[in-house]
Design a protein that fits this description.
Blueprint lengths: L1 E4 L2 E8 L5 E7 L6 E5 L11 E10 L2 E9 L5 E8 L6 E2 L5
Length: about 100
Amino acid sequence: MIFRTGDRWTMIYSEGLANQHLAFATSADLLAWELGGPVDLPRQKWMARKYGTPFVWRETGQWLMMLMGESPTGKTTFGLLTSPDGQRWSLLPEAP
C-alpha cells in the first residue's frame, strides 16, 4: 500500500514468508525507496498465526489501516489500526 505523507510517499507492505510481518519504506519520487524496517505490532488473538495485506486511508486527521489476519483456529480475521504519521501504528483494543 502506497500513500502520500507530507512531502514523501510511504509504503506499508508484508515482508517475509516464514516470519511474515509489516515493514515500511519512504520515497520522495516513487523510484528510490529508503527502507524503514519492520512495523512493530503487539500480537493479538485475531493475528495469532499471521497477518498482512494492509489497506491504508486517511480520515478525521489520522491514518487508519485495515489488516487481515489469521486466528489460532485458522479463521480469516480483520483488525483496525491508527497512526498519527503513517509509520507508527497502534492496534485498537481487541474485543473480549
